[in-house]
Amino acid sequence: MLRKYAFGLALSCAAILPAHAQLVLLAQGRLTGSAAGAGRDLSGLGYTLENGLPANVLGGIGSGLSYAGGNTFLAVPDRGPNATAYNPAVDDTTSFISRFHTLSMTLTASAGGALPFTLTPQLTKTTLLYSPTALTYGSGAGLGTRSDGSPLGSGAPMVNGAGKYYFSGRSDNFGAGTSGNPADGRFDPEAIRVSNDGKSVFISDEYGPYVRQFDRATGALIKTFPLPGKLYATTLSPQGDVEISGNTSGRVANKGMEGLAITPDGKTLVGILQAPLAQDAAISASNKMVRIVTIDIATGTTHEYGYKLTTGSGVSEIVAVNDHQFLVDERDGKGLGDGSNAKVKQLFLIDLKNATDITGLTGAAAASKAVAKGAAPFLDLVAELTGRGVDKAAIPAKIEGVSFGQDVVYNGQTLHTLYIANDNDFVPGTAGANQFYVFGVSDAALAGYVAQSVSAVPEPRSWALLIAGIGLIGGALRRRRPRAIA
């Protein structure tokens, strides 16, 4: 269950957060390295990728973010450092192994600070994702060279062994059939959620699109959920532009299952595509619709719903408020990392209750049955940050990770915490560090909120002791039961 913190702070901070605030920025933090060093994760991989970067390079971890109980969150980077140009024949992708990171996200009182809380993100573990059965990898034949001029070679990670076939970001790691072939070795993780028992994780991707379940402790594949065939591309290529030009149906290249939610009862996954399917793309520019796919975890049964974009060019995340309401992260690609000013980074509240299943519909007919959404954003991140004096050019372009966390009690008011993270494309020199923003949300702003109850999984003892020590600073810990849906 979620816990809530009670902090007593100086009056100078009380002025920042009014007694009856509905939505307010509580803290901001950044992560630039780990115990392995600056710009390195804890995978322990000591070799070099095709583009010359280390296989344990840290970055992109805001592609997906999920609460995992206590101070613990899980973060997932996407397919790897393909923003570093070296070989356009494979869209500059590498055999970077798919992985997720375990983070300690400690909130402490910040007496007299610019924000009422201090957020300290720390990387405690990196888990590599693999299949116990063989996967299909590209040979690299005819696809040019590595950054050092040697032949590109196989897309199979060099640490593969019997019973451990790692997923990777190389775009040529696919076999026969559609993009939904479960034996394909290519994987582009974009969202992550934790099971209620805390023992497994669900990760969605853009290549299939896929939704896969992995063992949280080992990273072993448990299951790949079959998705509706209309989501898959039929003509495949290591180059996204070529793949787009060869398909009239299915997901478009690099814009598959970008977001994933799990309902608080842990029974249903709710995925959302970044962009319209090829067969839905004929809708006018002012009537763009992306698909939401719900998956019953026990049976695999799916349903589809439509979501109309407002001003963003696509969707990056979806997170559950309760069993029928969700926040959708709609954005463009402007801001830090794009060399431009940030424009659209907005969360919209939607409701799937009584929504129309569009499984049998396409194009304008499907869009006409889109789900209800708020006319105004629930949260406009650009407006919130510029209101605090942040330059638009300093706001990350790719706001992609969204998760609720522990409740906090501050200034006599209980607030739900909403964590937001960015994908920096593994290029911190251009896109900045991995950033985390924490907002406090009142019941008045989010009536009906129900917290997911995630069973705790013990972390390494040294970190557990540190977290326990820090977490008690400034106030007492109290349990909070999730409220029933209003």
UniProtKB/TrEMBL annotation:
Residues 456-480 form the Ice-binding protein C-terminal domain. InterPro entries: Ice-binding_C, Phytase-like_dom, Quino_amine_DH_bsu, WD40/YVTN_repeat-like_dom_sf. Gene3D superfamilies: YVTN repeat-like/Quinoprotein amine dehydrogenase. Residues 1-21 form the signal peptide. The keyword Transcription does not apply. It comes from the Bacteria. Keywords: Pyruvate, Signal. Transmembrane segments: none annotated. Pfam families: PEP-CTERM, Phytase-like. Residues 58-426 form the Phytase-like domain. This is Pyruvate-binding protein. It comes from Sphingomonas pokkalii.
